[in-house]
Amino acid sequence: MIVCTETVFTLHTTHTSYQLAVAPNGMVLHTYYGTRLPEDVPSLADARMPHSDPGCWPDLLPQELSGCGTADNRTPAVIPEYADGTEAAAFVFDHAVVTPGKPQLPGLPMFRTGEGVETLSVFLKDAGGLVVELRYSVYEAEDLITRTAVYTNAGTQSLTLHKAASLSVDFAPDALELITLNGTWAAERTLERAALRCGIQSIGSMRGVPGHAHNPAVALCHADTNETTGDAWGFAFVYSGNYLIEAERCDAGERLVMGIHPYHFHWTLAPGESFTAPEAAMVYSDKGLGEMSRRFHTAIRTRLLPPHWQDMAAPRPVLINSWEACYFDFDEEKLLALAQASKKADIDLFVLDDGWFKGRNDTSSSLGDWAADTRKLPQGLPGLCKKINLLGLDMGLWVEPEAISPDSDLYRAHPDWAFGIPGREPLEIRQQYTLDFSRPEVVAGIWQQLDAVLQSCPLKYLKWDMNRSLAQVYSAVLPAKRQGEVYHRYVLGVYELQRRLTEKYPHLLLENCAGGGARFDCGMLYYSPQIWCSDNTDARSRLVIQYGTSLFYPGCVMGAHFSTVPNHCTGHISTVEARMAAALTGTFGFELDLTKYTEEELAQLRSFVAWYRAHGALLRGGELHRLVNPDANGLGAAWMLSAKDGSEAAVFAVGDALTGSHGTASLNARPRLVLAGLDPAAQYRDEENNTYTGAQLLTTGLELPGGYGQMPAKIWYLKKV
């Protein structure tokens, strides 16, 4: 619901409100974001002037869009350069419009429009000629508000945007903490939390993709905020390229700015032209980080994912990926043996990973030549797919569409399609270059190849990988003054190719990947309902990785596989139950050589596959409650997924959280795990026919059985009697 007067605009969701108001001098102020207010609440702007000198006001007032060079000395959201060389902007209110639904962003992903969505457009103008439409879309039931900005040159001469943020939020002076998800390859999205210091703290990427180091989502909270109590504000960027998130603390308060990274971003607008910034999504919770996460999860599942994959009750295939079983060393006979063993484990889908295309025996060649290597697959993909299908399995495939090998037919035919700076030695990373997807003809060329592959046989799944950062970003077809557009146009090209894939093949299960989890963001989730969470499938590591990821993203989008021990990435050994706990609360698949498994071991795997099928709707669509958060070493964690009505729940306890050596429970000879999300007045029964009252489970908790050895684990399913 959006309630407007001439100068006050209040956005209401079911549990939250956001307000902006026009000051007497025309400046648009941010006045409130928090717990739901009355519908007709008046302006909450501070009636006191911040300083006796009006010239100081821009630096002290909480602005809804901050300019630069006009006395607001905090980090700006916008930096325009006008034709006379000046870089200054001070925005004042012009008019506002409320519309049902939500306009599509040109070439960009976004949380989808539909019933229950309204959009407020607030138009601001600068004396130099730049007009900005601040666009707020309200998802009332989901407690979600999305924001973007459309920058239009209303002047008579060209101007250039050097920074064009999607979101800027000012907070009154407060002691806030910043939560970020940081890491590296095989250790992505490790949660870090620290008090905001005076000055600017930032995360971002100049890699061309969000990268392993930081995720494009952050939260602000108070020091006493925990999983169940306290204020939490969450912000996620719906974008898959370079980004910058800045949090500044100064005497005027705190400011959060989110948008495309200004590094090598220079977008020139001729008179009348516009630039649309990517979308940012935000939620608020007064019930701690857990409720903040659940609101993001619901919005992602119901408003962001591709429509075909939004029904959490619809089954998802249980897959096996060939990578850790075969790497590059395979032929058709070996693949079929793995497929036969997979069928014995009751797996649905066989995915052929890297190495299937012509001449590809290691990382040194062939990227860009998307045709089967007939030395490995004598009858090509159609022949293999037919044989896989006859075994009762569907088939999927790995591709890396943005990459090109120097040793490839495509590079020999089109060397100018790869990024490279004239006069510099081409830079190989992983023995490959990156295609210039800012060029429509390059996107069209790769689409032609992928479309031919998908038409050649009935593939049900495609894993889209991207294994290197962008470097030497230069387009051979753009003039010098437009090279600052290439990074963003590259991302638009990636989105265009994924749009073509998903529109022509809406039932194709597309899973994004980028050297593991280097492009795990809301932009990708608009096209693919799941993203490979990390190349590290070790259960201990996944406790930490998936815990951090869950702060913003639901388990149904986290690519997670059961793999062998010792783990190929870490060498750790974990129990079958621990590895299953991590995989079952993601997308659930396998990545190991099942031809080495005995009949008894395969039967054990079948029991977990059957359990996943029986409870898949709960695992994909249930409400997450983090019960015991993992330490940095992943030595234990506990979590649960409950139905929204409390009718059922799945509970997982791993490592120290099972043995009771976590927190204060370590002092208890009979440790228990206190649950959440259940009906206190109901009775519940587990699969061993034990019964519990809801009140018991929510207060004294579930008695833990203990456990010994390398990462013990236990899984419970509880059903209301």
UniProtKB/TrEMBL annotation:
<feature type="binding site">
    <location>
        <position position="185"/>
    </location>
    <ligand>
        <name>substrate</name>
    </ligand>
</feature>
<dbReference type="GO" id="GO:0016052">
    <property type="term" value="P:carbohydrate catabolic process"/>
</dbReference>
<feature type="binding site">
    <location>
        <position position="535"/>
    </location>
    <ligand>
        <name>substrate</name>
    </ligand>
</feature>
<dbReference type="InterPro" id="IPR031704">
    <property type="entry name" value="Glyco_hydro_36_N"/>
</dbReference>
<protein>
    <recommendedName>
        <fullName>Alpha-galactosidase</fullName>
        <ecNumber>3.2.1.22</ecNumber>
    </recommendedName>
</protein>
<feature type="binding site">
    <location>
        <position position="430"/>
    </location>
    <ligand>
        <name>substrate</name>
    </ligand>
</feature>
<feature type="active site" description="Nucleophile">
    <location>
        <position position="465"/>
    </location>
</feature>
<dbReference type="InterPro" id="IPR013780">
    <property type="entry name" value="Glyco_hydro_b"/>
</dbReference>
<feature type="binding site">
    <location>
        <begin position="463"/>
        <end position="467"/>
    </location>
    <ligand>
        <name>substrate</name>
    </ligand>
</feature>
<keyword id="KW-0326">Glycosidase</keyword>
<dbReference type="Pfam" id="PF16875">
    <property type="entry name" value="Glyco_hydro_36N"/>
</dbReference>
<dbReference type="Pfam" id="PF16874">
    <property type="entry name" value="Glyco_hydro_36C"/>
</dbReference>
<keyword id="KW-0378">Hydrolase</keyword>
<feature type="domain" description="Glycosyl hydrolase family 36 C-terminal">
    <location>
        <begin position="637"/>
        <end position="718"/>
    </location>
</feature>
<feature type="binding site">
    <location>
        <position position="513"/>
    </location>
    <ligand>
        <name>substrate</name>
    </ligand>
</feature>
<feature type="binding site">
    <location>
        <begin position="353"/>
        <end position="354"/>
    </location>
    <ligand>
        <name>substrate</name>
    </ligand>
</feature>
<dbReference type="InterPro" id="IPR002252">
    <property type="entry name" value="Glyco_hydro_36"/>
</dbReference>
<dbReference type="GO" id="GO:0004557">
    <property type="term" value="F:alpha-galactosidase activity"/>
</dbReference>
<dbReference type="InterPro" id="IPR017853">
    <property type="entry name" value="GH"/>
</dbReference>
<feature type="domain" description="Glycosyl hydrolase family 36 N-terminal">
    <location>
        <begin position="27"/>
        <end position="270"/>
    </location>
</feature>
<dbReference type="Pfam" id="PF02065">
    <property type="entry name" value="Melibiase"/>
</dbReference>
<dbReference type="InterPro" id="IPR050985">
    <property type="entry name" value="Alpha-glycosidase_related"/>
</dbReference>
<dbReference type="InterPro" id="IPR031705">
    <property type="entry name" value="Glyco_hydro_36_C"/>
</dbReference>
<feature type="active site" description="Proton donor">
    <location>
        <position position="535"/>
    </location>
</feature>
<dbReference type="InterPro" id="IPR038417">
    <property type="entry name" value="Alpga-gal_N_sf"/>
</dbReference>
<dbReference type="InterPro" id="IPR013785">
    <property type="entry name" value="Aldolase_TIM"/>
</dbReference>
<comment type="similarity">
    <text>Belongs to the glycosyl hydrolase.</text>
</comment>
